[in-house]
Design goal:
single chain, about 160 residues, alpha+beta, 5-stranded antiparallel beta sheet, 3 helices, 5 strands, rod-shaped
């Protein structure tokens, strides 16, 4: 069984808005209102025969007329949402500036990485040279130690 339709009226001071709906919540939705204008006393259910007849002829559709008049009701034209315009020149400029800053940051990071890599390579070469010197020095010391032991062993025999 379909819900019984009621006729609701609200005003913005200049225009009366009328809708036939099954509940207050559906009337608020039809009007595009988020706050409860019924609770605030700015909307009400009506039994005015002229309003009821017109609203029940097109349920769920918002009708309007000049406020506090007995004029004819007209269908409320829905405002179509405008398609978003393309980005503005300022927005494009901002994006370009940010892209340039990001590219500069990337280049600085690449330079820092290259410098660190060169420093690492230099330290590795230095470590290799030091290791070679220590190995040579160790060989020399081991050879002298062996000679000293031989000399010591030759005297005690």
């Amino acid at each position: 069984m379909a819900a019984r339709l009621k006729v609701f009226v609200t005003t913005d001071g200049l225009t009366d808005y009328v809708v036939a709906a099954s509940s207050r919540a559906k009337a608020l939705t039809a009007w595009g209102v988020r706050q409860d204008v019924f609770k605030e006393g700015r909307a009400r259910e009506t039994d005015d025969p002229a309003l009821t007849k017109a609203a029940l002829a097109s349920p769920g559709e918002v009708l309007r007329r000049p406020a506090d008049s007995r004029g004819a009701l007209a269908k409320l034209k829905r405002v179509k949402a405008k398609a978003p315009a393309g980005p503005s020149a300022a927005e494009r400029r901002k994006v370009a500036e940010l892209e340039a800053k990001l590219a500069a940051l990337d280049a600085a990071e690449d330079r820092a990485k290259a410098a660190l890599e060169a420093e690492r390579a230099a330290l590795e070469r230095k470590a290799q040279t030091l290791a070679e010197r220590q190995a040579a020095e160790r060989e020399g010391l081991e050879a002298r130690l062996a000679e000293a032991r031989e000399a010591l062993d030759g005297r005690s025999a």
